[in-house]
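Structure tokens please, single chain.
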Amino acid sequence: MSTALGERRQLVRAAMKAPYLTREEEHALAVRWRDNKDEKALEKLSLAHMRLVIAVASRFRNFGLPLGDLIQEGHVGLLEAAARFEPEREVRFSTYATWWIRASIQDYILRNWSIVRGGTSSSQKALFFNLRRLRAKLSGNQQTISDSELHQKIADAIGVKQSDVALMNARLSGPDTSLNAPMIDAEGSSADRQDFLVSDAPLPDEIVTANIDAERRRRWLTSALDVLTDRELKIVRERRLSEDGATLESLGEKLGISKERVRQIESRAMEKLKTALLNRQPDEAAYSLSV
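Here you go.
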């Protein structure tokens, strides 16, 4: 018998032998601990409720973590409940402590079940701890139900998105896998799993280069705009530099000229811009402003 297993059994036996407390005894111990920090009162109060910790921890055995660790975390929640308990509310300590015990165990599971942290919101936590139960309950004898229909039913029951259910289901379906885990490619050669993950996103140096070039061109264009008259600048800004380019007709109405005149002014302004840009950066072939 391993040392850990022996200690766990000894803890369970001690918890089962601990006497139950009456409401009056429980209240007196809670008051002694709160007002006087009486360690013996805390010890007696917590020992009497260790069977509650064991019972709550046993409900989470299917998550693959040692029961002894779950009990230990539940005991932490029990002590937290003792520190926050208010005897004057006339609520049994077991009722109050159950929430803290369960919360402590669930937090431990979320931190240690996977190296990838998940379940950071209340809805994700509910999904994580209820997915298996709801999947078994909702599928029932409906052998023909599709995965998408099942995921939608679970999403409606918990109040989350169907995509969140599908993602959590995929996470729970298998263990973590290292990106450095060896794999055999089609040619029979050994390679790391990460070698098969291909990203279409630009490389970091390409992103930096593009940002620097874009900023440089923005400065050149801003400088070149100084060669335009006020009316030319207004037309170019509203026609070429705004997200929703204005029409020739709308600009003509604003400026009190015909749309053909607007087109002529715009054409002349674009030629002036091209000339100004080439004069400032003659080696930049990337500038081809369409007229």
